[in-house]
Amino acid sequence: MIDPNLIAIILGVLIGILMSITGAGGAILSLPLLMYFLHLGVKDAAPIALLAVSVAAGIAAMIGLKQGVVRYKAAALLALMGIIMAPIGVFLAQKIPSLWLQILFALVLFYVGWQAVFSAKSPRYLQDNLFQTSPTPCELNPATSRLFWTASCTQRLLLTGSAAGFISGLLGVGGGFVAMPSLLKISNLEHRMVVATSLTMTALVSLVGVISYASYTSINL
């Protein structure tokens, strides 16, 4: 039988590589992998997945900050709403049977996969269907490499952060799979900026999710 510690290390390395490339997908993959390989229930795997993602995303975010590619105001706004909504998601997760959480997670996985395939054919799909507004509500100032802050941009960042935080707490995922495609569709940020900004939000929201889970139950590391 393969040592569980070795499995955990391999999973951590793979998830870290994935997050550094895409800015998303770490926890949404780590959760089912932990459940399958380490035979954990969804409520036991969720805080572990969030902790691993918080550390990996935090390191990547610090690198991004050092390189100057994190749009820290946008990340702060996303994280603020995520931090508010994550504990609500965690609270509801304690009330919902594990079977229903697994079904909901499977539906989210299906949606993410479908969205990835469809977005490759229609890059504006998410924005056109979710926001029904102009192509880029959050415009980047080419002279300063900073966003023009408008009510439309702020509203969409608040919505994105809220959704990412709630789903993060409810299902034990990082929220990057919500923030990343949303930022790509509502802004004209460079891809590396989107990745770094998404990871910054993910690190903070995931950490709050871990703390929230710890307030309800012990975390078996």
From TrEMBL:
Record localization: Cell membrane; Membrane
Top-level lineage group: Bacteria
InterPro entries, alphabetized: TM_pro_TauE-like (IPR002781), TSUP/Inactive_protease-like (IPR051598)
UniProt keyword annotations, A-Z: Cell membrane, Membrane, Transmembrane, Transmembrane helix
Pfam family, one: TauE
Signal peptide boundaries: none
Membrane topology, record value: Multi-pass membrane protein
Primary localization: membrane
Keyword Phosphoprotein: no
Transmembrane portions of the chain: 6-38, 45-65, 71-92, 99-118, 157-181, 193-216
GO CC terms of this entry: plasma membrane
Family statement drawn from the similarity comment of this UniProt entry: Belongs to the 4-toluene sulfonate uptake permease (TSUP) (TC 2.A.102) family.
Name of the molecule in the record: Probable membrane transporter protein
Species: Methylotenera mobilis
